[in-house]
Specification:
The structure is a single chain. The strands form two sheets. This protein has a four-stranded antiparallel β-sheet with strand order 2-3-1-6. Strands 4-5 form a two-stranded antiparallel ribbon. The protein contains three helices and six strands, in the order αβαββαβββ.
């Protein structure tokens, strides 16, 4: 079970992003706390514009936890970031959707 926990902790949710923030800027921000393995800024399927959130994957859980504790609430491009451990997608259907 420990391996599954590490996989979750290493993946970080970053919300309230400015649409102007680039993947390189996000990588630089998180690189202060360890090695960044992957960055995914989530974009709208049709417009390709940022939806205002991203996922950052760090090399290990210690680096990820350090980044979360230091970056949550930090203002970047005028927006206070919401930085927290990413949660796995829920496997249940949303109410009202069939």
């Amino acid at each position: 079970m420990r391996a599954n926990r590490d996989a979750i902790v290493k993946n970080i949710f970053v919300g309230n992003l400015s649409s102007n923030l680039t993947p390189d800027e996000l990588r630089t921000l998180f690189a202060s706390y360890g090695t960044v393995e992957r960055i995914e800024i989530v974009t709208d399927v049709n417009t390709r514009y940022s939806r205002g959130f991203a996922f950052v994957e760090m090399t290990n859980d210690a680096e990820a936890l350090k980044a979360v504790s230091n970056l949550n609430g930090t203002t970047v491009w005028g927006n206070p970031l919401k930085v927290e451990e990413a949660r796995p997608k829920a496997s249940t259907q949303q109410a009202g959707k069939h």
